[in-house]
């Protein structure tokens, strides 16, 4: 009898613990409700039962009583991301890619100190990038390609010192590359294809020692390519075509043994680094990853 009682108590404790862990604060729940309304939740592909516990909602992950992930990739979200997302202060993953979101980014979206992955690509987001990234020291991936963003790449972007992947391709960004990019020494992928970025590149690319992919094609860069790029021994994928570079001669000394694709407007360098016509298809395949990452 004693064993039965002990077993019953254990089950109750575990059940109660699970229920407590599943609960989230009223402010977090209210933001999710606001988000659902602002992005037309009734039209989502996978809808939320607003009467059920938020931990059961599609794409919402809850740990220790807090929302830690919001994964709504390709879910027919329309409308805009509402202000107040910083209420999800324990959020680690935000994936709203491949939807039809419009409007500006919330001012507080870059106040999420625990965020490691932010994927907002393939939407219709507008406006400028924020200037302050000082709280984003844990962010490893920032992907906002194929939106309608304007303005310059702010100097503050160099504050995201854990960043491994930065993809801002296919927007309307202009101006020069900020010198602060040199601080991103963990960066493995820098993708800026198809913007209106211009001028000489003053960034010492040689400081990005872990860089594997560098995509600067189809902008308005000019002048000489920084000589430091030739020292990047981990480069695997490089695309520079469609710019107004005066010279790429500094790359003649490039010794990256891992280089698989090199595309530029210099046919001699293309031949030297073994570029084939087949590699050019990669430019239209900028990180369109599968649903498994949502």
Can you describe this structure?
The strands form three sheets. Strands 1-2-4-6-8-9-11-13-15-17 form a ten-stranded mixed sheet, with no helix packed on it. A four-stranded parallel sheet has the order 10-12-14-16, with no helix packed on it. Helix content is 14%, strand content 21%. The protein contains three helices and 17 strands. It has one domain (27-293): Ribonuclease Inhibitor (Leucine-rich repeat, LRR (right-handed beta-alpha superhelix)). The chain starts with a helix and ends in a 22-residue tail after the last helix. It has 294 residues and is α/β, with parallel strands linked by helices. The chain has helices at residues 2-22, 26-38, 267-272, and strands spanning 60-63, 66-71, 78-80, 93-95, 100-104, 117-119, 124-126, 141-143, 165-167, 174-175, 189-191, 196-200, 213-215, 220-224, 237-239, 244-247, 261-263. The model is unreliable at 7-21 and 278-294 (pLDDT under 50).
Helical content band: 10-25%
Strands across the major sheet, in which order? 1-2-4-6-8-9-11-13-15-17
Q: Please count the beta strands (DSSP E, at least 2 residues each).
A: 17
Q: How much β-strand is present in the residues?
A: 15-25%
CATH topology: Leucine-rich repeat, LRR (right-handed beta-alpha superhelix)
Tally of DSSP helical segments: 3
The chain-level mean pLDDT equals 89
State the major sheet.
10 strands, mixed
- Radius of gyration, rounded? 23 Å
Shape, per Cα inertia axes:
elongated
Give the full name of the CATH homologous superfamily.
Ribonuclease Inhibitor
Order of helical and strand elements: HHEEEEEEEEEEEEEEEEEH
Q: What separation lies between the terminal Cα atoms?
A: 48 Å
The assigned CATH architecture is: Alpha-Beta Horseshoe
Tell me the structural class: alpha/beta
**Spans where pLDDT lies below 50 across 5 or more residues:** 7-21, 278-294
